[in-house]
Amino acid sequence: MEQISGVINESCIPYSEFKNNVGKVVSIKGAIHNIRDMSDFAFIIVRTARELIQCVYSPEFSEYRKDENVVEQAAAKLTGLVVKSETRDGSERYELQIHNIEILSKPVAIPPVVISKKQINCDLSVNLDNRPVTLRNPKERAIFKIQEGIQRGFREYLTTQGFTEVHTPKINFAGAEGGTNVFNLDYFGKKVYLAQSPQLYKQALVPVYERVFEIAPVFRAEHHDTSRHLNEYISMDFEMGYIESFTDIMNMETGVLKYIMNLLKTEYAPEIDLLKVVVPEIDTIPCIRFKDAKELCVKKLKNITDMKDFEPEEEAFLGKWAKQQYNSDFLFVTHYLSKKRPFYTMDDPEDPEVTLSFDLLFRGIEITSGGQRVHDYDMQVEKMKKLGMNPEEFETYLMLHKYGAPPHGGLGLGLERLTMHLLGFKNVRNAAMFPRDINRVSP
Amino acid sequence: MEQISGVINESCIPYSEFKNNVGKVVSIKGAIHNIRDMSDFAFIIVRTARELIQCVYSPEFSEYRKDENVVEQAAAKLTGLVVKSETRDGSERYELQIHNIEILSKPVAIPPVVISKKQINCDLSVNLDNRPVTLRNPKERAIFKIQEGIQRGFREYLTTQGFTEVHTPKINFAGAEGGTNVFNLDYFGKKVYLAQSPQLYKQALVPVYERVFEIAPVFRAEHHDTSRHLNEYISMDFEMGYIESFTDIMNMETGVLKYIMNLLKTEYAPEIDLLKVVVPEIDTIPCIRFKDAKELCVKKLKNITDMKDFEPEEEAFLGKWAKQQYNSDFLFVTHYLSKKRPFYTMDDPEDPEVTLSFDLLFRGIEITSGGQRVHDYDMQVEKMKKLGMNPEEFETYLMLHKYGAPPHGGLGLGLERLTMHLLGFKNVRNAAMFPRDINRVSP
User: 10 Å Cβ neighbour count for B43?
Assistant: First the structure.
């Protein structure tokens, strides 16, 4: 009887082991990413999970010089001698003098988009149509490795802060934040909805675990086709109980962001370097009231008509202002108008026209909405009625308040949007692995 | 200008700090879980995120003896003296002699289900109808804390093994594994589907990152209402490239399970103890071919008619057999019949009637299906045709093979189902926070 031990006997070494194997014959596995034929020898660039390894294929080392199976995108096992080489900047680099190439699998066609160059040079729509191939380009895949780092940082930091990770249902009996912009689903003859936010569930879990977070897809049936909206995206949400003020939530987010940026700089350095990302330094994040921010905008910008919310150019201006005044890439704007925030937002007891809420601007663009929530049953029912909502339709949600909830609040952070702004993209689709928009559900 | 530093100034201490504060006056925050009135004093049990803290409320320490606001499910801040008390088993325990109770919020009704007893004693359907309340019971919430541990262990182990965490779209243009059992969605007038598996996406990402995993909801429109099916559940999937044999996948899973079980025993000990979970010890996992396992079943069990698959009683028998013969709670069954596995499964080159696939049985119940996938384009197209599928409908999927894919394979593991079997539940709904079945989409 065969027994499975849990240990894989690797016959190959990773690139990180090259430095300990100079002068030795080793094997590596990877995709043949690029072949640069130099007539009497060739460079074969092998793509592994995070590196490109330069291998030299020459009659001096090997007899396999003109093997027709050695083509780009073939999967291969290469055996050869590790040698140290100098780079122009003097840093250490290692390469493999190939003795033997074993082809593990072969493509049957040449990719429709060139992926072996430094970057993909085609229209975004062509890139997206060919995602299974274009993501193989090192710069393309680096985007989503960094995205992994962002969500990993969010999770790791909150775990150290006593949060519990939860998974809440995406098939919902009612839209979380009103009935607009939700996708309808036929569920065994019943009409149900796809979650546009875990809001009501994460609040329900505050009396259970005090602090919870979720990283999961949400779905928004927005009919407009813009450069910053997706119809499905990954929402990073947290909700925390027993807060003493809504500042606690902003502090938690500041801690999260500091942790993420540090993680990116350390464990994601290869990708950060490759994409030349300027990772923001965070010391403290300044904080301004909506009213005061609006006054600043009115003073500096022309043609401001909407006094209840910001236009994108106002957010951009505030971003620059925070950078100039406080050398901060981030700015919290607080106390948004009550009529502009969802029904579960806590009004400021000192001025019920405004709320204990905030947005976070990153380089002049909103990446978070958050705030304190109503925890008192009577207050929530009254607020719903004032907004023309029927509390009976929210009976399950209101169990939270009816049977006791601590003061609490939280926020949501769109993963693709944060990635987009960190990497300086103009279009959120660049930061979505397989974006869904009004015209695209494939691949 | 206020500056947010990222540090929350806590006025309260967690229970873990009690041992360092004996004889000192401290504050704690939590829900009043249970009040046991002993006539001349009362025990107030305070529920925090993971503990129940015993507090003593007596005229000796405080004037607040008969405060009508002090009710079960109120959120409170309690201040008092930390004292050490002995438990019957001699272990250390600490309690709080209450000086003052500040009520932070109050419920307006008594919960419809008693949650302050050791366990919830009501029908499962009543429990599920009242989830926002019943989850507050320490045994109920412990289930999902353990569930957090399982998915966390899956993630942490794979991260150490060079895997990249990915998020693939849940709105799909085609059902991953054929057109049955998928939910249809109206997407701006187009008919699209909810993902029943990340299969095709995770395979597409193997040539990108070599090793990927995803923990995310999947949706299955199964019309039957059984104790082991959910219509939405969390699937833990991984896929790994450059495997030398499909045994590599079983080894990776064995490593994952060892790590998870160890994590549960250490970091989730309070919940493991509370629910009296017998965490399996894993040394090695035995491995038997489907054909040989079937022979064992035929010898020992009566009335076996289906020779192509297992009935639940056969799996149960095999589970007992593995326990008796190898003292293992787990058993890999390999080489399932080709006609019983999905189109992307690699046939055994030595016997094309069977596949390089496996199921993992845990205590006699299947928790994983996995195996090696076809990576060669011509082989996959031919297999599709043989199965009556139209390769043209899978053009995007086949980009993976057409443009080169290494030998690879992977598996899927249902989070709720693993939780269910680990905890010994008869019904998977007990292991789903907000289960979705043919009759339930609420709360």
Answer: 15
| Pair A159, A235 in one domain | yes
**pLDDT score recorded for residue A224:** 82
> Cβ(B246)–Cβ(B114) under 8 Å?
no
pLDDT of B245 reads 96
**Residue A279: CATH number of its domain:** 3.30.930.10
What was the pLDDT predicted at B177? 56
Q: Which residue has the higher pLDDT, B228 or B267?
A: B267
Question: Positive or negative CA dihedral for B160, B162, B167, B169?
Answer: negative
Token pair 């969802």: residue: A342
CA angle B351, A31, B246 (to 5 degrees): 30
Active site residue B136: no
* Catalytic residue flag (residue A369): yes
Domain boundary among B105, B121, B147: B105
CB within 8 Å: A167 and B130: no
B117: in domain = no
Quick check: is A5 in a domain? no
> Closest approach of chain B CAs to the CA of A140, in angstroms?
9
Is A436 inside any structural domain?
A: no
Q: How many domains does chain A have?
A: 2
Answer yes or no: do A248 and A384 share one domain: yes
Q: Under a CB-based contact definition with an 8 Å cutoff, are residues A255 and A330 in contact?
A: no
Assess whether A331 and A233 both reside in one domain. Answer: yes
Q: Residue A278 is which amino acid?
A: V
- Is the domain of B298 the same as that of B221? yes
Q: What is the CATH number of the domain that holds A88?
A: 2.40.50.140
Interval B397-425 mean pLDDT = 97
Computed from CA positions of residues B129, B131, B134, B138, in that sequence, does the dihedral angle turn out positive or negative? positive
Could you give the ipTM of this predicted complex? 0.97
With CA atoms as reference, the chain B residue closest to A113 would be: B403
B358: nearest Cα among B243, B219, B228: B243
Please report, rounded to a whole number, the percentage of residues in chain B having pLDDT higher than 90: 89
Tens of pLDDT, residues B328-385: 999 999 999 999 999 999 999 999 999 999 999 999 999 999 999 999 999 999 999 9
Residue B207 lies in a domain: yes
Residues in chain A closer than 8 A to B170 (CB atoms)? 170, 217, 219, 232
Q: Do A255 and B188 touch (CB under 8 A)?
A: no
The most confident of A222-231, B59-68, B82-91, by mean pLDDT? A222-231
Q: Which of A33, A168, A25 is closest to A111 using CA atoms?
A: A33
On whether both A290 and A368 belong to a single domain, the answer is yes
Q: How many CB atoms lie within 10 A of CB A127?
A: 20
**Residues A317 and A228 reside in one and the same domain:** yes
Tokens representing A188?
A: 């065994």
pTM score, whole prediction: 0.97
Inter-chain touch B165–A184, beta carbons under 8 Å: no
> Do B214 and B78 lie in a common domain?
no
Within 10 angstroms of residue B395's Cβ, the number of other Cβ atoms is 12
Residue A373, helix vs strand vs coil:
strand
Most confidently modeled of A60-69, A71-80, A173-182, B56-65?
Answer: A71-80
Q: Domain of B214?
A: 138-431
CB atoms within 10 A of CB B143: 24
A320, exposed or middle or buried, with CB in 10 Å at 0-12, 13-18, 19+?
A: middle
Tell me, what amino acid is at A266?
T
Q: Are residues A97 and A150 in the same domain?
A: no
Q: Which residues pair with B342 in a beta bridge?
A: none
